[in-house]
Every structure is written in C-alpha cells, then in structure tokens.
Write a structure and sequence with these properties.
heterodimer, A: about 575 residues, alpha+beta, 19 helices, about 20% strand, B: about 210 residues, alpha/beta, 6-stranded mixed β-sheet, 6 strands, about 45% helix, globular, FUZ/MON1/HPS1_longin_1 (chain A), Vacuolar fusion protein MON1 homolog (chain A), FUZ/MON1/HPS1_longin_2 (chain A), FUZ/MON1/HPS1_longin_3 (chain A)
C-alpha cells in the first residue's frame, strides 16, 4: 500500500459527504478553553507579503500603555481632589496631563500625537537626550580582528545553514547572525541595492530569491531591511515569520516610536549604537527558533503540573501581587509557562510571550539580583515600554517570576510582592512541585502508548498553547533533531501554504510517515515510523487526541486568572 | 525611585564593561566571577541591598547596578533619582570609559545636586600586573573628583581592594551629613524661639 510507495503523498479528503468514511472522530478538542489567557490576534496565516504590503501588519498596536498610564493619572487626580488641600501647582500639572491625554485620543498616527504620547510617557521611553553625539565606540569595532575578516570569507561562513541579516534603509549593517556585521558591509550593500532596485523600478517589493539550494527572503519594515538566507526546509512564509520575530525583537528593545524617531532625524544613523548589548537577544532568539517549535506554531508550551498546584500558584500571585498598574504577572521555568495572571481586558499575545521567554533565556544577569528593566511588547503596545521586575524564586535559578507594570516607580512595591509570593510558594511546596516537573522532563512518547508514533506537536488554537513529548531515539542527536524539525517545517508549510491550504495531509517519506491535521480547534502534526498505513495513522491520532484530552488539565492552562 | 526599607540609595553609573556588576558582586556576595563566567551585560538595572554598621548604627544600603549600554541612558534618571551617593565607575585600562564617567558626573550635577560622587577606577589588578596598560592618569581622575568635591578610589573586584572602603565611606558620609542636617535643624529652632519671644515682648514693652 502507501507504505511501499516511497515519498508518496495523499491528501485525505474530508469533505462533508465523505466524512463518514474518513474515520476521523471529532472528539472534544483537547486543551480547548473559552477562557483564554493568551490571545493570538494574528497567526501564521496572517503573516504574508500581502498583509505586509497593504499595511495590515504595519498597524502595530499603540497606546495601550498610554491608556493605562492615563488611568493611573486619573486615579491620582481623584485622590488629590478628595484630599482637597493639594497645592495648586500639582493640580495644574495633572490638569495639563489630562488635557494632553484628551488630545491623544483623536488618533495616534500623526507625529504631534506621538510627541504628546512621548512626553507623557517620557519615563517609559528611551528618548535620546539632546543631540546625538557623533563618536561611535561600538564594542564590535574594538574587538574585530583580521580573523573575523577571514571568517566571513571562509567556506565555513558560506556553509552556515541559516544566515540572518539586519540592515538599515541606507544599507548600514546592523546585525548578522554569523560573523561580525562590520566585515559584511559590502554584502549588505548588495542586499540593499537589490531591495531598492526593485522598489524604485516597479514600485514593487522584493520578496524572495531562490538560488540553488539557498532561499533568500527579504522583509522591509520601518526603515529596516531583514534578510534571511537558508538552505534548510523553511518556506518563504516561514522565513518571513522568523524575520517578523527578529523585527519584534528590535521593537522590544527600542520601541517603534524610538525607532521611527531615530530614522526620521538621522537616516544614516548607526543603529548598533543603540542596540549594543542586545545582540545576545537576537542570537538567542535565532537559536531558540531552531529548537523550539512554539515559535513556528505561535504558541507556548506549559510546564506539566497538576491543575490544583497550578491554581494554587495563580491564586497566590493574585493574592499577593494585587498592585495597581500591574498588567501581567507570570512564572516561567525553562522556557515553559507555569502560570499567568493578567489584568482584566488585557491579553498576552504568544509572540510577545516568546520575547519574554527570550529575554529570560538570553540573559544570565537576572540570576544575580532582582532586576528592573524596560521591555516593549510589540503586540501589546509597540509605542512604549512596560517595566519588568525580574527575579528567580529558587536558589538554583530555575523558576523565574516576572511582574510587568506600567508604573515606573513600582520597583520596591513589586519587590515586596515578590518576597511574599516566594515565601508562600515555598510554604505550599509549589516550588518543589515545579522543580519536580522540570526534573521529570515533560513526558515520554511511551506514555501515550501508541505503537509507531514517534513524536508529535499538538496545538490548541483557542489557548495558543502546544504540547509535545520529549525528543527520544531516533531523534536524540542534533542532526536527527534538525531533520525532524525539517519534517515539521515541511508538513506545516504544505498545510498552511496560502495558495492551497489543506486540512489533512498524509505523507510517506523514506524514514517516516507524517500526518498533519488542522481543524478550527487544533493543529496536529504527527510523526510515525515509515511502515505505518493511512488507516493505522488515523486510528493512532484519534487515540492520541483522547490521550491528550485525558491529560489536558496537566498539559495546558485552561483557566485564565485575572487580578 | 525612593522608598522601601532602604536608608541610603546608591547608584552605580559608568560605561558598559567598566566593572559595575563585578563591584556589586564583590561587595554583596564577596565573590568574583569574572574569570569563570563570560561577560554578561546588565539588562535594565539590578538591585541589591546590604546592611552596614556605622557608629554602632545599622544602615541599609540599597545599590542600583545600572546597565552601561547607551540605550538605557534616558532611563537612568529613574535609577539615580533621589540617590544619596553615586559610584561613577571607569575602567583604568580604557580611556573611553573615563570620558563616559565625565558625562555621568555632568548628568548628576545637572539633575541630582544632593548626590555625593565617588569616582571609582576599576580593574586595578590588571594595572598592578602591567602598569603599561593603565590609560587613565591618576592626576586626571583626582582633578575631576576635586571639581565635584568627590573622592577617588582605585579598586579591584578580583582582589577586593578598597571595595568595602567605598561603601563604608558612603555610609559614614551619609550619617555625618544627616547628623549635620539634624544639628542645623536644631539651630534653626533655637533661632525661632528667640524671635518669637522677642515678638511677644514687644507689645509688652509698648504697653
């Protein structure tokens, strides 16, 4: 049958008339929840050049933080009124603030409004004070040596599997994944020439070039050009997603308002100056993309925990971090979500959560002491910073608590909250439970007890969370893991190809059989041994869905807790 | 930011890689990781506190270890606002870091007059081993400190040289200025009393 035909492919038809024969049982969707804490306002299918060009993606959310700050100002205002005896000066100040705000409501596109917004958020934004000094002592310039020049000309550099470059409108190098971007001025100049040639000649946008086994993908947004070069299995759209993550990372460090302001006043600006120290976030994000399927799926993995323990943790946060202006409180352990508490009406976008995970993952410095750092979440508000109180709850630095606030002065208050939460979680043995779960390493595919099922990714769409078992033999070497990822890229791309989206795909490859199944409720990508037939595979995924359903309380966060 | 249980707010300022975090690590945890752990730039700012005893009194020093990246420059105001002392660090082996120290001193004078400045040349162990690597002149540092009525320290987080001394001095300077302020307040009160007694005398004289 199908198994004998190597590299054969069948699209299982599940149109209404035939659904009876297809043997797919529509079980209740595992991991489904109407009460979601992560809300993906856009997903993979929305990230395309069409959207990019007609501006749908450009319209980054702005003003969320401003609205929250406004609320804070109003609150202070009312306190003062009730107090009644405040000096007139401060009342005037606040009256001015309120006036400023009313003018902002009209719209946030014009520069005037942006200025007002910035003045109001002066503390929260990275305004360059005064003129920009011209001396540019970039650490790269100092450290670059001849060996780096050699490196970018070497075969080794050319054979890197994936390159990512960021350059400015004027062709100035900003970042390169491999090798020092300083030594790549020429090649970046060529890239800029290609992009601007297409843009100038036909008022068109350069999307991608395929040359041999290399794929070059271009994305231009807000004065920056992102270029991805891969010889892996990623499709153009998947590369575009990765470039979008890179763009989001830039915004997360700078905010969109700062980025646009910088390039508005200095087209030639060397952005590396402002980004210095942030290179590790780009590096780490790219490494994360190679090993973490969550970024491809726009969803996050939760640390498996008994729902009672998880509820206990969330309730502890709610109880001891009930502080005004606290927007999100989350606990993260090894790139997995343990608990999230959010302010009513505000949701975390999975892409933003990935940036938070990356912030924690990329930096060792949080392990030394409690930190207070600005972070912009582009899907939450691209215009301003939230302030993050970051601390580890255990001595081994596995479990990290993040408290995200719009109040820049809240450090000491949040520090006290952290101490209380830490004390209570210790008392309730919740930290021990987290550590136990971390030590047990998620779960083995054996636990699902399905023959010939080797690995799978299951994403619950309504909650933007996914689950997958540990990588075990044969996927226990780096090469095999890369190959497995390639299979997932392939399956994901075939199913989501914008021209011809599929619901189900059964693919027989030389070493394994793949089954992808997408419904409005979930996405499932399963990898079987090579000799599995279509019927067996279908039975297996039905069984798998039942197993996930049974375990859903442990694998997913199904209830959303608010302050 | 002010508040909490902290008595003295101290802020560390200086160019990236000047050794601010190492200095705090040495002071608070009495350890030096520079040789085992690769360099990690600070993100935002990190906070640490330590209690010191000066004149038999316990004083809590809250230390803000700020990020050196220029990106955080505008944000640094929130970290040094209300600080009683600033340890402005520069790398003895890097001229550019001293220029950056000048910049920070300028900022502090402009925005935070009440903040005492402690100029601190770091990585002395390197200079000690090879004096040729020193690129910031001692005289220059002293002159700069004199300008702002601050003090100069030369430290090594690796050996621990003079690290403790800075913070002990910060604490005792703070106590001294606090005592002086209290004294001044007392004096003012005495003046008031006299004045008011005069006033009450006046109508009595007239009558």
């Amino acid at each position: 049958m199908a198994a004998e035909v190597r590299e054969a492919e069948q699209i299982v038809n599940v149109s209404d008339s035939e659904s009876g024969q297809s043997d797919f049982i529509e079980t209740e969707i595992p991991g489904k929840s109407n009460n979601s804490l992560l809300v993906a306002s856009d997903e993979f299918d929305d990230i395309s050049y069409e959207e990019l060009n007609n501006g749908a993606l450009q319209a980054a959310p702005m003003g969320t933080i401003n609205a929250l700050v406004k609320r804070k100002v109003k609150r202070q205002h009312s306190i003062i009124e009730s107090d009644g005896r405040q000096s007139t000066v401060s009342e005037d100040d606040i009256a001015n603030d309120v006036e400023n705000e009313s003018s902002e409501i009209s719209g946030d596109d014009t520069q005037d409004d942006n200025l007002v917004l910035e003045s109001n958020l002066a503390d929260l934004s990275l305004q360059e004070s005064g003129s920009l000094p011209l001396e540019i002592p970039s650490p790269h310039l100092i450290s670059s040596t001849n060996s780096e020049t050699d490196y970018v000309n070497s075969i080794e550099w050319k054979q890197q599997k994936k390159h990512i470059f960021i350059l400015s409108d004027s062709g100035k190098p900003i970042y390169s994944r491999h090798g020092s971007e300083d030594k790549l001025v020429t090649i970046m100049g060529v890239m800029q020439a290609l992009v601007s040639f297409v843009a100038d000649s036909d008022k068109d946008n350069l999307r991608s070039i395929v040359a041999g086994d290399h794929r070059f993908v271009f994305m231009t947004r807000d004065h920056l050009t992102f270029v991805g070069v891969t010889r892996g299995k990623e499709s153009t759209q998947q590369m575009l997603l990765q470039l979008t993550y890179m763009y989001n990372q830039v915004i997360s460090v700078l905010t969109l308002s700062t980025l646009t302001r910088i390039f508005k006043s200095h087209r030639n600006y060397d952005l590396r100056r402002t980004l210095s120290g942030a290179e590790k976030f780009f590096d780490n994000l790219l490494n994360l993309m190679d090993v973490e399927p969550g970024l491809l799926l726009s969803s996050v993995r939760c640390l498996p925990l008994d729902s009672a323990v998880r509820d206990n943790i969330s309730q502890t946060i709610v109880q001891y971090a009930k502080v005004k202006d606290l927007v999100f409180a989350l606990i993260i352990a090894h790139n997995q979500l343990v608990a999230v508490v959010r302010m009513k009406k505000y949701y975390l976008h999975p892409m933003d959560l990935h940036l938070i995970l990356n912030l924690i993952n990329a930096s060792e410095s949080f392990k030394a002491a409690e930190s207070w750092t600005p972070i912009c979440l582009p899907k939450f508000d691209a215009a301003g910073f939230l302030q993050a109180h970051v601390s580890y709850l255990d001595d081994e630095c596995h479990t990290c608590l993040l408290l995200l606030s719009v109040d820049i002065e809240a450090f000491y208050v949040l520090s006290e909250c952290k101490a209380k939460i830490q004390e209570k979680l210790k008392k309730y043995n919740a930290l021990a439970a987290i550590n136990n779960s971390l030590r047990r390493n998620s779960y083995s595919i054996q636990q699902c007890s399905i023959n010939d099922l080797r690995h799978f990714l299951y994403k619950a769409r309504s909650t933007s969370q996914y689950t997958s078992p540990e990588l075990e033999a044969p996927y226990n070497t780096k090469e095999e893991q890369e190959r497995l990822f390639g299979l997932y890229y392939y399956l994901h791309d075939r199913i989501h190809t914008s021209g011809r989206p599929l619901k189900i795909l059964f693919h027989v490859g030389p070493y394994e059989t793949l089954l992808g199944w997408v419904t409005p409720g979930f996405e499932l990508f399963a990898v079987f041994g090579p000799l599995v037939t279509k019927i067996t595979a279908i039975h297996a995924v039905n069984k798998l869905l039942r197993w996930i359903k049974k375990e859903e309380d442990r694998l997913f966060i199904l209830s959303s807790v608010t302050f | 930011m002010s508040g909490g249980k902290v008595d003295i707010k101290v802020v560390l300022l200086g160019k990236a890689y000047a050794g601010k975090t190492s200095l705090v690590e040495r002071y608070i945890h009495n350890r030096f990781l520079g040789e085992t752990v690769p360099y990690q730039n600070t993100i935002g700012a990190a906070f640490g506190a330590k209690t010191v005893t000066v004149n038999n009194k316990n004083v809590i020093i809250g230390i803000w270890d700020t990020a050196g990246s220029e990106r955080y420059e505008a944000m640094s105001k929130i970290y040094y606002r209300g600080a009683k002392a600033a340890v402005v660090c520069y790398d003895l082996t890097e001229k550019a870091s001293f220029d950056r120290a000048r910049f920070w001193i300028g900022e502090l004078q402009k925005h935070e007059e009440g903040c005492r400045i402690y100029l601190c040349g770091t990585k002395y162990d390197i200079v000690e081993e090879n004096p040729a690597l020193r690129s910031v002149d001692e005289k220059e540092a002293k002159a700069l400190a004199l300008d702002v009525r601050g003090e100069v320290y030369v430290t090594s987080s690796k050996t621990g040289k003079d690290i403790e001394k800075i913070f002990i001095n910060i604490a005792s300077d703070y106590m001294a200025s606090k005592a002086a302020a209290a004294q001044k307040e007392d004096d003012e009160e005495i003046v008031k009393l006299r004045r008011s007694s005069k006033k009450s005398n006046c109508p009595a004289c007239k009558s």
